[in-house]
Amino acid sequence: MYFQRLRDLREDKDMNQTQIAELLNIRQTVYSRYERGFQSIPVEHLIALADFYNVSTDYILGRTNIKEINK
User: Fold this and answer.
1) DSSP string computed for 8-63
2) Angle between helices 17-24 and 43-53 (to 10 degrees)
3) What does the radius of gyration of the chain's CA atoms come to, in whole angstroms?
């Protein structure tokens, strides 16, 4: 699965792949594989990114188009 939303969210924050990889404590090449759909994203990384971007995991996964979540 290709996660265009991961890339869009990252670019909306004016961040590069290396910065997001550091946030997840992984290498940039691994994060790049997530964005391109060459590697499945672990649940813990999916949750961390959803929290970081303040969106739901369903939004990242394309199950909803509602971007903002209420906390």
Assistant:
1) HHHHHTT--HHHHHHHHTS-HHHHHHHHHTSSPPPHHHHHHHHHHHT--HHHHTTS
2) 120
3) 11
Residue in this structure with the two tokens 């939303």, named with its chain if needed: 5
pLDDT in tens, 12-41: 999 999 999 999 999 999 999 999 999 999
User: Which pairs from 56-61 meet CB under 8 Å and 24+ separation?
Assistant: 59/5, 60/3, 60/5, 60/6, 60/9, 61/1, 61/3
* Residues near 68 by beta carbon (within 8 Å), at least 6 away in sequence: 54, 55
Q: How far apart are the C-alpha atoms of 43 and 59, rounded to whole Å?
A: 14
pTM of the model: 0.90
Q: Is residue 71 over pLDDT 70?
A: no
In angstroms, how far is CA 33 from the centroid of its own chain?
Answer: 11
